[in-house]
């Protein structure tokens, strides 16, 4: 089974670790910290304003479920949730996506440096993770979910 | 009618411009840009993980409605949505709140500087806005909503 992220990217079980009827969650090519994952509506929709009531409901219930697992399994104490909605907010893929970032005391010198990292993470020249590494993480994370939609 | 924001802050129609059965939206004491507003569940709950399914549904439908109005009325082209969930994410009030920030081309030299501003906005020594100014804005914004819960 494949999932579309924007118009040009196809994701499979190598990245996707959880899916519901209307949403899916996947690991990141360039996480800003370990455990930085993304949750999307299945339908390729650019802006948050375009989501249906059912999509919103499913998306943010999924965000809650994924956040709980990510915080616990990455031994974090807090979470940052963020949506860059539209080109002038830093959105780089035309598909609504919620960033979930596990946070710990002292993970950044200033707690909000995480956003500077978020801004850079898909633009800078850092090498991407290998597909093997991503698949291993996705496979591990999938064990915490019942994959209803797959 | 009053709304609790955390354990110590009471808000009234001077700040609150929209409310639903389970959520409310209010203007900011120190907005990082004009139109920066907050949306909360009515129940004082510290972490996102504690929200019920109904609260999540109501909260993010309200976020969508408020975002559409804010983007249009502040003549923006994009939105930043953000939740600081827990003490190590920069959360300063123990009550789940979604930041909605209208964004425009060139509003910051680097688009993601908005987060640095967000990190500082309730900590630095900048003067707060006057209650008169907030009440005027809340009154204006309330005209775009049907205040179901009031």
TrEMBL record, chains A, B:
Signal peptide: none
CDD domains: FHIT (cd01275)
Residues under site feature: Important for induction of apoptosis: 115
All copies of domain HIT, residue ranges: 4-110
Enzyme Commission (EC) number: 3.6.1.29
Active site per the UniProt annotation: 97
Keywords per UniProt: Hydrolase, Nucleotide-binding
Catalytic activity: P(1),P(3)-bis(5'-adenosyl) triphosphate + H2O = AMP + ADP + 2 H(+)
Molecular-function GO terms, alphabetical: bis(5'-adenosyl)-triphosphatase activity; nucleotide binding
Keyword Hydrolase on entry: yes
Binding site for substrate: 28, 84, 90-93, 99
Residue numbers covered by motif Histidine triad motif: 95-99
Matching InterPro entries: Bis(5'-adenosyl)-TPase_reg, FHIT, Histidine_triad_CS, Histidine_triad_HIT, HIT-like, HIT-like_sf
Top EC group: hydrolase
Record's protein name: bis(5'-adenosyl)-triphosphatase
């Amino acid at each position: 089974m494949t999932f579309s992220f924007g118009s040009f990217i196809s994701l499979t079980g190598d990245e996707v670790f959880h899916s519901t009827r209307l949403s899916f969650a996947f690991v990141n090519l360039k996480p800003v910290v370990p455990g930085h994952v993304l949750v999307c509506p299945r339908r390729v929709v650019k802006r948050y304003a375009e989501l249906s009531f059912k999509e919103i409901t499913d998306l943010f219930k999924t965000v809650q479920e994924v956040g709980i697992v990510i915080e616990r399994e990455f031994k974090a104490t807090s979470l940052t949730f963020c949506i860059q909605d539209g080109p002038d907010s830093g959105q780089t893929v035309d598909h609504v996506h919620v960033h979930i970032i596990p946070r710990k005391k002292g993970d950044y010198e200033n707690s909000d440096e995480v956003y500077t990292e978020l801004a850079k993470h898909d633009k800078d020249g850092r090498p991407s993770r290998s597909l093997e590494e991503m698949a291993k993480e996705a496979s591990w994370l999938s064990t915490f979910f019942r994959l209803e939609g797959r």
